Amino acid sequence: MRELKVELGERSYPIYIGEGLLQEAAAYFKKHQISLKSPLLIITDEHVAPRYLESLEGNLREAGFTVASAVVPAGESSKSLSMLESLVTKALEAGLDRKSTIVALGGGVVGDLAGFVAASYMRGVKFVQIPTTILAHDSSVGGKVAVNHPLAKNIIGAFHQPEMVLYDLNTLQSLPPRDVSAGLSEVVKHGLIWDAEFTAWCEENADRLLALEPDALGYALYKGCSVKAAVVSKDERENDLRAILNLGHTIGHALEAVAGYGELLHGEAISIGMIGSARLGLRYGAPEDVYTTTKRALSKVGLPVKLPEHFDVDAIMNAMMHDKKFSESTMVFVVPTEIGKVEIKKDVQTAWVREIVEQLKLEA
Ligand SMILES: NC(=O)c1ccc[n+]([C@@H]2O[C@H](COP(=O)([O-])OP(=O)(O)OC[C@H]3O[C@@H](n4cnc5c(N)ncnc54)[C@H](O)[C@@H]3O)[C@@H](O)[C@H]2O)c1
Ligand SMILES: O=C(O)C(=O)C[C@@H](O)[C@H](O)[C@H](O)COP(=O)(O)O
Ligand SMILES: [Zn+2]
């Protein structure tokens, strides 16, 4: 079992990473003073529920918790305002009060959605993250919670930190291969922005990660969570440093929105976006090796590096203008300068961005 801490003063919380934690959930809930008197609501999705919901519910009920559950459709389209409303209805029907806790059991979609329900229900109740995807090593840590708008990704949301993150590595064994690769996108990102050695390790161990080898997976998620926790601890609300976690997201979020949330998985869109950022890095004078390493590392974990031909460049440019990273009339990009180091560039020339997006269709 590995343990990390997100240091945020009175909002600090632990990240537990290990095998079999789902079966020990109640003990952790009690350790972290989750109320036994007020009902809990577990929010999960239709792929996760048949595999893990009964075991979590059983463990909590046996320990004396009152538990209700809500199962949403799998996939990005569940991160919507209408889903938020139906979950609030569910919370009211289940009698959740201000001392209740919302539990997110699932990937980043469930985590972001359930977290936003927790942030808004009765103006904020506690929540616990139980991530079940590789990608969710990123989404379960840091307290960014949100739903999408048809025009812009994650545009309705809040900062709301969980009470704890309970990461049971055993649940990852049932992930479909496409979601394994998509999740590794943010793992590779954490190396690219912070740690050259970890980037090299990801490349060397790509096959073990794709095969879901527990030792490799445990180490990769521990390292990824460590980077995330370190950054968030220094800058909870993205006043400056935290923006580096957005590597690849300026283009990536636009791709997700243009595709109508679903054609490209988040990790896939971010992979293509990171190639775009690496190309932008070259324009700012980064050595060629930064681009080639980025591309090789992402390819090795089975991610796309090329923008599909049918994506409309004008629509992508337009979507970027709605993103949170378009501010004070300029485009903001996180740009790699060497492996393990990035810089935030404001005032990026629109003409450069357009050229790079066009170039993304030509990547080999
Ligand atoms: N809040 C943040 O800081 C943050 C960070 C990164 C990403 N995100 C968000 O996370 C979302 C993507 O997360 P994701 O990739 O985990 O997507 P997801 O939650 O949709 O999960 C991917 C797929 O895997 C299925 N699944 C989940 N766990 C499973 C398991 N153990 N076994 C079998 N199937 C399982 C899901 O049902 C889904 O079909 C995006 O909405 C993105 O914006 C948020
Ligand atoms: O936690 C962060 O900060 C991140 O940027 C992590 C990203 O991987 C994540 O996709 C996040 O939701 C993007 O932030 P947003 O503010 O652009 O929605
Ligand atoms: Zn992301």
Automatic annotation (TrEMBL):
Its EC number is 4.2.3.4. It comes from the Bacteria. Zn(2+) binds at residues 186, 249, 266. GO terms for biological process: amino acid biosynthetic process; aromatic amino acid family biosynthetic process; chorismate biosynthetic process. It catalyses: 7-phospho-2-dehydro-3-deoxy-D-arabino-heptonate = 3-dehydroquinate + phosphate. Residues 183-325 form the 3-dehydroquinate synthase C-terminal domain. GO terms for molecular function: 3-dehydroquinate synthase activity; metal ion binding; nucleotide binding. GO terms for cellular component: cytoplasm. This is 3-dehydroquinate synthase. It comes from Paenibacillus catalpae. The gene is aroB.
